Amino acid sequence: MQKILITGGSGLIGKAITQLLEEQGKEVAWLSRNPEKYAQKAYYWDPVQYKIDQESLYWAEGIIHLAGEGVADKRWTESRKKDILESRVKSSRLLFEELEKVKDKPKAFVSSSAVGYYGFDTGDKLIYEGEPPGRDFLAKVVKEWESEVEKIQEIKIRTVIFRTGIVLAKDGGALKEMLKPPVAAPLGSGRQYMSWIHLQDLARMFIFALENHGLSGIYNAVGPVPVTNSVLTERAASFKDKPFVKIGVPAFALKLLLGEMAQMVLGGNRVSSEKIEGTGFKFNYGDLNQALQQIFH
């Protein structure tokens, strides 16, 4: 597979995947509402308006689908929640409907999803792919998103869905937010589990799924050793030489600050990576200290 089309290519994960693919000599194009804005080869689409340059789907041998409004970017008003849901559902539906018309279809379709599927808080229980969905807003979003993506399998395109955990990276994602305040502190009790994955491992996992014909269906995209919020915050602070206090930011303060979104950081999931590891995928940064060492040094 030499020609890979990426939706959401300009985001943190999309850029990391693009760089790895290009290092391997692959051609990469993005689907974008503003294709002229990027140096990257890009085709026009607007999922909200249900428009796409059909040429992109004839060009692509494989597709990576990451598009969706940022879940943690803004406070969850009703209209923001609608954008979060529709950006994922409509973009996936548009791709399915347009791919159906393409005679020589791409060989593989790899989509992002989220461990939010399992619900905001599943406690200490180790969670596998077969668990039922949660009942909160994000779980509902992920469930609808996945059911749109799964239709692509029906048109004879091998489809893989990755339920992504908390992505650790230097220039964005959770770490940047956690280490913003002058002093790092756990959120709420700090005992909630965070199923994290290093950005480079996640990017490699997407490419592994494109190239590995034996992969289809749903996999958790998390590292092998989930840790509590308190442990992750303390270790990240020490690698960043930042002071850490053990007293957690109170739940009520987070609720005032973030509204409904606070449930996302106060809850947690301890998610298993066993299924993806069973396919032969190997983590380069499976240990938290290794991951943080690479990010901060």
From TrEMBL:
Residues 249-295 form the DUF1731 domain. It comes from the Bacteria. Residues 4-220 form the NAD-dependent epimerase/dehydratase domain. Belongs to the NAD(P)-dependent epimerase/dehydratase family. SDR39U1 subfamily. This is TIGR01777 family protein. It comes from Cyclobacterium plantarum.
